Request: fold
Amino acid sequence: MSGPVEQGAAVASEDGSRVAGRLREIFEGHRLSPAQRRIARHLLERPADAVFLTGNDLAEAVGISQPSVTRFAVALGYAGFPEFRDDLRTALRDGRGPDAVPVVSNPVQAMVDSEIRNLELLRDSLADTRRLTQVAAAMAASRPLPVVGLRVSAPLARLFGQLAAKAHPDVRVLDAPGSTLEDGLTRARDAGAEWTLAFGLPRYPRELRDGLVWARRAGLRVALVSDHAVGALAEHADAVLTAPVSSQFAFDSQAAPSVLCTLLVQAMVDALPTREQASIEEFESSAAERRLFLTE
Reply:
């Protein structure tokens, strides 16, 4: 038979799982600042303690100001931190949490779970593929095809460019802001481009918005890959493809946008003429002859 201490530990563990489930439920769907994410991670790492903390306790533990804790609670839809804590206490008392939210053993797994949910949302959103195929066909037909991505979105633009260039004859990746971006877009339009593809993920650079405005002024149509179909960037786009971004991490994680990027490449290749699709095989043959890649 287990002793009182062991029984108490088991109850505390069960309570912690219940509170952690409610915390993940609350955080889901909210965009938090980096400082607010530190608070969220602290609570998820110590869910059994969360129902006992005051705003001052939490501020001291995380190393932030007490008003920052208040802003954290308000960002989640509460009047203040006491109301947020009362919600957690209600979940604990009513037994809410573990049955409604899958229980994982640690915060790292919870972050992976958030990306799995985002991939499921992306999958479900593609039940109708018409918008994807329409955008891909426009990308395939645009010669040249300028691809724009700034700051955190630049790697996705480069990924698309790296893959698309194996089949599309003229892909131009533009990842520098300001007049350099404007010049690149103007030269692409003068060379015959009709569309530009832009990646715009949070946090959204002002320079990207300005670049999209310039692109349309230059006569280009804009296809945008982002996490929302409306907003400061979407209003400057002719077509928008969306994939959710996880804000559970210290910095946004982009698993779903990365998958959407490669899906768009696939759909664009499918829309290219057969002779251009054949260039993929030609590259593979050339790569094998030159031994570009290591064998397993």
Residues 23 and 64 are 20 Å apart (CA to CA). DSSP finds 13 helices and five strands in the chain. The first strand starts at residue 145 and ends at 149. The longest helix spans residues 4-27.
